[in-house]
Amino acid sequence: MKRLIGILVALAFCGLPAMTWADTLTQSFEHELLVNAPPQSWEHRIDIPEALAQKGHVFIRRALAIEGMLVIEREELTRTYYYIKVRLPKFQSDYMMGRVKVDLETSTQLPPAAVFPPPANLEIFKYTPALRPALTWKGDEKYSATTLYDVDSGATVMERVVVNMKSVAVDEGWLQKHHYRWAVKQGDETGRYSKEAQIAFRIEEKNGVVVIITE
Q: Which one of 25, 40, 193, 198 is CB 3.0 to 4.6 Å from 187, fit for a cystine?
């Protein structure tokens, strides 16, 4: 009888789903620029602690909270590390500071794969200066990664990751009378992103006025 009870208990445990253990790591990065300092970027990397890795944990999600004037240029979430590049643009004669808080969730199981549609309805906002334009779009996800390319020079002008926003603007310097391509993709807390949606435009002078013309 005892043997039968033992077998039944073992079978009951075999029928249970595998247990998932989760943990969250939090780290903040704060930067400042004095009045006469030029704009500057910083790169940070957070590796999964060895103790968690030995238990089979991997990074599965990240949450970002931004304060002040700090902007995010790019990020990457992998199973074993999180990378983020941040920047303080510079406005003349201003003191600049900002902070980003990163919450990283670990687990012994990966979340289900998600596929997101690209953002839609990309538009150049018509009420900004032509040499410092802004891009707007529509999408359902919390995170968006944008890249502004200078087609004429082949250079990347600006990268920005925004949270809970569906717009981004050129926040330092001025563009030239060139052809440009602005790309944006959207994603969620798992760090996965959609394919890019793009809008092409050029900046030129007409009748003494600098204008943007979408292509």
A: 193
CB 27 within 8 A of CB 86: no
Q: What is the C-alpha separation between 180 and 212, in angstroms, rounded?
A: 10
**One domain for residues 131 and 202:** yes
Instruction: Compare 2 and 104 and report the one with higher pLDDT.
Output: 104
Position 128, amino acid: T
User: What's this model's pTM, rounded to 2 decimal places?
Assistant: 0.86
pLDDT tens, position by position, 108-139:
999 888 889 999 999 999 899 999 999 999 99
Q: Residue 154: its pLDDT value, please?
A: 97
Q: Name the helix (H) or strand (E) containing 180.
A: strand 179-187
Same domain for 205 and 126? yes
Q: Please report, for the domain that includes residue 124, its CATH number.
A: 2.60.40.10
CA distance 27 to 90: 25
Asked if residue 187 lies in contact with residue 116, where contact means CB atoms within 8 angstroms, the answer is yes
Which residues lie below 8 Å from residue 126, measured CB to CB, with a gap of 6+?
none
